[in-house]
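Researcher: Please translate sequence to structure tokens.
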Amino acid sequence: MKNPITVETTVNASPAKVWEYWNSVEHIPGWAFATPDWGAQAINNDLTVEGNFKTHMFAKDKSAAFDFEGTYTVVQEPTLLEFKMSDGRQVQIQFSETPEGVHILETFEAEDQNPHDMQRSGWQAFLDNFKKYTEAN
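Model: Translation complete:
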């Protein structure tokens, strides 16, 4: 993986719940955005090796939108996901059970358009939203 960036959090929930909330098209819209003025619509999540996923991200004021999509390369429930995004970058997400809950360690290849700190903070915001959503529901 070239130019990797890592973000992480620990979610106070069971591995089964974390896996379900991370991967279910029912739950993805509840957390898959960096700031409250954005939303997400999970369109597809074929959670199999070579399966595709697509989440439509949109500004609530309709000023911008894009699709976050890719293809799974590794699916090991409930501990590991790896995928290749549509732009070719690789992502690895490790889910490890701890006494405090499930530790999520997400490593992704940086893109060239934005500073690494900006990318890290954006991806960390998604993880923070996931933690908040999963622990509240």
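Researcher: Any highlights?
Model: The chain has a mean pLDDT of 96.
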